């Protein structure tokens, strides 16, 4: 099954690489503000599904663009597919995107493939057998101090996203780490945590196809993955936190209060921080308005009776 997933990912990658040669010619449509789909997403997804169902016609499919339209909906085996994670990067020619394929059996992820077609990097994993990058065993980083770590994240970009809360989260992390990075492809972010290229990752608003494959890569590479509160059942909770075991624990301590599953006390603390931030901004806005009024008052007034 893993070999079939690799074959499907490489077929999708070939389509993506061909399209990347002339990205300006790719037709793009907008699902919602700042959320795009291209004909390449659709063609890559079709190639993946065709490859998988040719080998396993009785399996179920859950794909980002076509949902569960294909395959058998009642199978214990379900393929979870993101044909092009990082579409916004792709349509701008920014070479950070990937193909993500996972296989779940009775709801538990058993196989995972994340393929980066621009670098020809193939990340694979099977439950209980470790994680690999280009057939080389990978492990999460060994750093133990958050202050030494490079952390990846994703920024909110959809209408209705709680941007102010995310600014608080990023502020908490940025002040305590070596750096914060935003690549724009969550599946690749998780693969990089598995490979030890970064030490942790957090993002909210993610769908199951964004995190299913990458999550298995992290755990099979010796890391931990869950929601912001540290609970392991995260796949459909739209918040994801990953890291090596020591850093994961420190990130949970730092970011747990922002989880939708946080205690009432923690949620109140976040609300108070947001209110303080809002209150601190208001005097500055008032001061700016006053400065504008004073400047306007100092300007010479037009006088129609004045001589030319």
Automatic annotation (TrEMBL):
Coiled coil: none
EC identifiers of the protein: 3.1.3.25
Cofactor(s) the protein requires to work: Mg(2+)
Record's keyword annotation contains Hydrolase: yes
Highest taxon of source: Bacteria
Acidic residues bias (residue ranges): 291-308
KW Hydrolase (keyword) present: yes
Matching Gene3D superfamilies: 3.40.190.80, Fructose-1,6-Bisphosphatase, subunit A, domain 1
Spans annotated as Disordered: 273-308
Similarity section: Belongs to the inositol monophosphatase superfamily.
PANTHER family hit by this protein: INOSITOL MONOPHOSPHATASE (PTHR20854), INOSITOL-1-MONOPHOSPHATASE-RELATED (PTHR20854:SF4)
Name recorded for this polypeptide: Inositol-1-monophosphatase
């Amino acid at each position: 099954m893993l070999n079939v997933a690799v074959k499907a990912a490489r077929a999708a990658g070939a389509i993506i690489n061909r399209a990347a040669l002339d990205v300006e010619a790719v037709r793009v449509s907008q699902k919602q503000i700042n959320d795009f789909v291209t004909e390449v997403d659709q063609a890559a997804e079709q190639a993946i599904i065709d490859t998988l169902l040719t080998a396993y016609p009785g399996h179920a499919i859950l794909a980002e663009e076509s949902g569960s339209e294909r395959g058998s909906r009642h199978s214990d085996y379900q393929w979870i597919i993101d044909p092009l994670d990082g579409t916004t990067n792709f349509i701008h020619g920014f070479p950070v995107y990937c193909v993500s394929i996972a296989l779940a059996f009775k709801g538990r992820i058993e196989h995972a493939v994340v393929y980066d077609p621009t670098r020809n990097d193939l990340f694979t994993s099977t439950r209980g057998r470790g994680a690999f990058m280009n057939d080389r065993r990978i492990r999460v980083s060994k750093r133990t101090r958050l202050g030494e770590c490079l952390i990846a994240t994703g920024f909110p970009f959809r209408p209705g996203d709680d941007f102010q809360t995310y600014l608080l989260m990023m502020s908490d992390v940025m002040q305590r780490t070596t750096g914060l990075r935003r690549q724009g492809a969550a599946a690749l972010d998780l693969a990089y945590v598995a490979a030890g290229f970064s030490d942790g990752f957090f993002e909210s608003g993610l769908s199951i196809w964004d995190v299913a494959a990458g999550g298995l890569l992290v755990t099979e590479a010796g890391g931990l993955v869950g929601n912001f509160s540290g609970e392991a059942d995260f796949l459909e909770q739209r918040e994801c936190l990953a890291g090596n075991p020591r850093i994961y624990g420190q990130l949970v301590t730092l970011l747990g209060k922002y989880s939708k599953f946080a205690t009432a006390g923690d949620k109140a603390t976040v609300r108070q921080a947001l209110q303080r931030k809002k209150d601190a901004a208001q005097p500055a806005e008032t001061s700016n308005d006053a400065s504008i009024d004073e400047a306007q008052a100092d300007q010479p007034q037009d006088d129609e009776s004045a001589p030319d």
